[in-house]
Amino acid sequence: MGDIRLNRVDQGQTKIKNVPIAVTPEGFWCCPSPVVFQKSHKPQNPLNKTKPSSSPPQPQPKNSVQKKPVAVQVTERRGSASVSASSRLVVSDDQQCSIGTERASAGTSLAGERVSRPKIETMPRKVAIEFGEPGTCDMKVVLLGKQGFSVKLSVHRDVLIEKSSFFSEKISEQSDLSSLQIGDCEDVEIYVEAVGLMYCKEMKQRLMKQNVSRILRILKVAEFLGFSSCVQSCLEYLEAVPWVGDEEEEKVVSTVLQLQGEGIGINPVLKRVSSDVSNVPKDTLSHIIELVLKSNEEKGRREMKSIVLKLLRENNSLPSYARSTDTCNDMIYRSCRSCLDSLLSLFKQAAEPTFAEKPSNERDLIVKHIALEADNLSWLLDILVDKQGADEFALLWANQKELAVLHEKLPIVSRYHVSCISGRLFVCIGRGELLPSKETRQLLLQTWLQPLMNDYNWLQHGCRSFDRKLVEEGIGRTILTLPLEDQQSILLSWVGSFLKTGDSCPNLQRAFEVWWRRTFIRPYVENQDNAVSDSSTVSKTDE
Fold this sequence. Notes:
Distance between the termini: 89 Å
Structural class: alpha+beta
Number of helices: 23
Largest sheet: 7 strands, mixed
């Protein structure tokens, strides 16, 4: 944080420049804006060096007298409040020559003076600040910044001892210490503000005017100085103020975690990002998913499904040891089974002979619930696919034979949502996102391909989310993963349906072509290759 040196501040004549400064009604110095330090760090024109100008300089009369700069104390009153004390801020250049020095070196040539003068960039700048009542300070603190300037603080020994364990320890080591130097300070401005806060009675009100980034800087310096009341006030501020964005949150958490002082109450701040309850993630996730599945409000439900799916995908990017994949999958599959049981019950109600005689509002309610449960299953399938755990869902869906039988008895407008689930599974298998067993793939096609083909025409024209080319490619690739005899059985059945209904049936021509080549062309090519290989072997034997 800084290099500590104990020494005396060199006294000497300095060039004084006025700098704006604010003094509170309490009588302590308010930290000037960073512009003050930046301006004090900018290179200044050396003495006796004329500014470049287009017109030649005018010669001065012989009797003219060079004026000496005068230090001016600047005090700003806020409102009508009386200021009980004042503070002084001056900027000085220790490398500037005093008036007496200039007179003593009057006979030196201009060229010699230029050679001996140091570069402006290397000349340190000094800011001098006095706290409390003028003339009552009994100690100096010098801060040497990395930016090339220093700050001399006129302070009170008893205030430093009372507020700062760092200063108290240094002063106790040397009772007659009159000057303390802290070198290589990374943040001189905040050091100065921290000392100023030692004179502040209402620190909370003072910190409320700052932003989170500056409070973190103050917190870091206050911990180094052992300024415990300031540390506690900063933590109270951080506990109450909103953190804007992930980047700011990470800065707050990392800074607070680095605090090592005893008795520092950091838990209230960190409780915003962590919990002491071990099973909160599991129980909370289950509760959130249950709320989404039971919602009937279309817009809110759609947006929450999107948000939860996005956040779960972020969780999937974590290392495997940081995720409870098995536990989460078990919870999702429980929700899947619950939705399937509800969907089967609704299908049974809709398939009853007396269903058409029920009032229209009751029929509409059942149809709406069928669409809702089918949408729930599609969403849960998306979650499982992202988690690479949807193979069991394929088996679960392939075994819904009773649901597939009831499917034929319902009007197409009531049942087509279920076919969307089948189409989604075929797409996932075709992409390699699901790797169910051969038996599961066979059962899935046997149970749900024909219901999907029955609803295909409606899906193309009545379902905006249905992607025909994607589904057809998925079905074809799923078929081609089976043994050749199974491919032939399914594709020949498809040919009969396609010749009858045309575009109202999935177009599996690409899969049909692959099966054709595997069946009729590949054996011939292999036989030709074997014949050539055998003939070459015989010729080599004869030779």
